[in-house]
Design a protein that fits this description.
Elements lengths: L1 H22 L9 E5 L2 H7 L3 H11 L4 E5 L2 H4 L9 H12 L3 E6 L20 H19 L5 E6 L15 H14 L4 E6 L15 E6 L2 E4 L3 E4 L6 H9 L7 E7 L13 H5 L4 H14 L3 E5 L1 H9 L4 H9 L4
Parallel strand pairs: 1-2, 1-10, 2-3, 3-4, 4-5, 5-6, 6-9, 9-10
Antiparallel strand pairs: 7-8
């Protein structure tokens, strides 16, 4: 009996090892469209002039696809009063330059602290909180749905991932928000995202019109310090799409790591410290890895940092970024 058990166990181990190894041989080399994320709030913290940094993204680096957040706590600082003037400037500049915008909304939008909830809403009973959240979503959709720069709505950012100080969200609640957006604006597709490394996408891959995954290769956390995902083959992401019955043509890399993820804030670090974690070669390797995943569009993550480097006189990464969308 023990011998039989051991034979079965060894067979399973060999099968899993062979399946894992085979993933390294099924890559889908392609040349995706490159976009970029930009957060005006974070840029205002990091840069002396956030608008100047944004203009560098669309003019100097020639990105034609931008992901911008409409953070709830920035749009509705006072309950019932919506102020879109700041984000208007960025969406309008995108429109002036034939740049297409993916606008992120919801309780959870890109950049720390992940959930950008107004102070006045944090302690509301959940049913009231949900109604206020939907009012902000409705106001944002009504404000931008006819803007010529708008391409997609990102509804929530990794809503089922327990990262950041956020209220938990159910699949039903996420679907409710997506249905609300689609009812108010049937012309523009919706996209919902999830972690590429920390989720199997069972709850997230088929909720919206499109799906977005993050791709991080080297991170830091307080429990283990620096952690690398280089053991994951590029086809790992395609395999998870297959498991979720989601077509690759309907999926984007919504965040490709192109900035360091370290223990300290960027403004508390030297350029040399940061470049020892992510330099030009690392970004090139990450882009090559993303090409092997084979999804049609890749949004890079780190534009605010690239411009910060440029202001510090470190041009190797900014100069490389400028080549990605260069017209021959």
């Amino acid at each position: 009996m023990k011998v039989r058990f051991m034979v079965i166990f060894i067979g399973i181990v060999f099968f899993l090892a062979a399946a894992y190894t085979s993933l390294f041989f099924f890559n889908f080399k392609g040349t995706p469209i490159y976009g970029v994320s930009f957060d005006p709030e974070y840029a205002s913290y990091l840069l002396p002039n956030a608008g100047e940094g944004f203009l560098a993204v669309i003019n100097d680096w020639n990105f034609k696809y931008i992901r911008l957040p409409a953070h709830w706590d920035q749009v509705e600082k006072t309950r019932g009063k919506y102020d879109f003037s700041d984000i208007d400037w960025y969406v309008d500049r995108a429109g002036d330059n034939d740049v297409k915008v993916m606008l992120a909304l919801g309780q959870k939008t890109p950049r720390w602290p992940e959930c950008h909830i107004p102070v006045w809403a944090k302690d509301l009973p959940h049913s009231v909180y949900r109604e206020e959240l939907k009012r902000y979503i409705s106001a944002t959709v009504e404000h931008y749905k006819n803007h010529p720069a708008l391409e997609f709505w990102q509804v929530e950012n990794e809503p089922f991932l327990g990262f950041g100080s956020c209220r938990p969200m159910t699949v039903a609640e996420a679907k409710e928000e997506i249905e609300l957006v689609k009812r108010l604006d049937p012309r523009h597709k919706t996209i919902l995202s999830d972690s590429g490394e920390l989720s199997l996408w069972g709850k997230s891959a088929n909720v919206a019109d499109l799906f977005g995954t993050t791709v991080y290769r080297k991170v830091w956390n307080k429990y283990v310090g620096v952690w690398s995902y280089k053991f994951l083959p590029a086809s790992f992401y395609r395999f998870k799409l297959w498991l979720a019955d989601r077509a690759p043509v309907e999926a984007f890399i919504i965040e490709l790591q192109a900035e360091p993820w370290i223990a300290k804030h960027i403004n508390e670090s030297t350029p040399e410290e940061l470049l020892s974690f992510v330099d030009r070669a690392v970004i090139q390797n990450n882009i090559s890895y993303a090409q092997k995943i084979g999804l049609p569009r890749v949004y890079l993550w780190g534009a605010e940092w690239w411009y910060w480097l440029k202001l510090k006189g470190h041009n190797e990464i900014p100069d490389y970024i400028a080549t990605l969308n260069r017209v021959p």
